[in-house]
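Customer escalation, tier 2.

The customer says the design service returned an amino acid string that "doesn't look like it belongs to this structure." They asked us to rerun it and document both sides in this ticket. The original structure tokens are below, unchanged.
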């Protein structure tokens, strides 16, 4: 049977490969902060979200313990997601600037949002083993996004994870390996000379509070990354 995003979603949401992350996502759901008391948490791994015909894939680190782990949608219900979806909306890639719940009417156009890890890790730090356990899901996802040509990597962890996933898909990773930076770019060509897995990778500082509150990442900086991604996607 051919793979599909629906099949991938079922596999992701039932995953229990990483005992530490399973325990953490369930514990945070069972004892939420006061502002979320009474809400029913998703408390399962998160699939990606967006347009199946997207030409741009946005890859983050992992869901937030009280963001996606609560709402059931990646980058939804936390400050990082507020920044990300507002930027996607300004770029014409989302129909509204906010994403607060799975049933809020948010729709992406030409973009798909996902992450390297699908469960929230303690201190936002997955282990290398946890990253590698989850990486096959990203590989499948990128393979199934048949129109995608550009990846926007939100942070160094997503940059490295994206390179590893693309290598699994047959892309030739340049040596030395491209280094992450805001606005950094890398072009990866198919190792077999074909065109299907030719990708452009664009780096962006993660829209976490430690970057947005300090001015390390500003709205114009985020807008410039999405403008560049749209330019690359249209080539």
């Amino acid at each position: 049977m051919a793979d599909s995003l629906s099949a991938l979603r079922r596999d992701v949401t039932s995953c229990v490969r990483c005992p530490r992350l399973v325990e953490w996502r369930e514990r945070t759901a069972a004892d939420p902060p006061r502002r979320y008391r009474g809400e029913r948490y998703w408390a399962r791994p998160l699939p990606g979200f967006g347009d199946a015909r997207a030409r741009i894939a946005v890859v983050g680190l992992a869901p937030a313990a009280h963001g996606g782990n609560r709402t059931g949608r990646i980058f939804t219900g936390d400050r990082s997601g507020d920044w990300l979806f507002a930027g996607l909306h300004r770029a014409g890639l989302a129909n509204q600037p906010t994403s607060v719940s799975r049933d809020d009417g948010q729709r992406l156009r030409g973009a798909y949002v996902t992450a390297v890890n699908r469960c929230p890790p303690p201190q936002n730090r997955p282990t290398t083993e946890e990253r590698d356990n989850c990486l096959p899901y990203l590989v499948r996802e990128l393979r199934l996004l048949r129109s995608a040509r550009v990846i926007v990597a939100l942070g160094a962890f997503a940059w490295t994870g994206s390179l590893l996933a693309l290598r699994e898909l047959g892309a030739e990773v340049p040596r030395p390996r491209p280094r992450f930076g805001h606005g950094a770019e890398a072009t990866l060509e198919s190792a077999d000379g074909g065109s299907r897995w030719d990708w452009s990778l664009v780096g962006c500082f993660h829209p976490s509070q430690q970057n947005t509150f300090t001015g390390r990442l500003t709205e114009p900086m985020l807008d410039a990354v999405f403008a560049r991604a749209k330019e690359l996607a249209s080539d």
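Tier 2 assessment: The sequence is consistent with the input. The CA atoms of residues 6 and 205 lie 30 Å apart. The radius of gyration is 17 Å. Sent an explanation to the customer and offered a walkthrough call.
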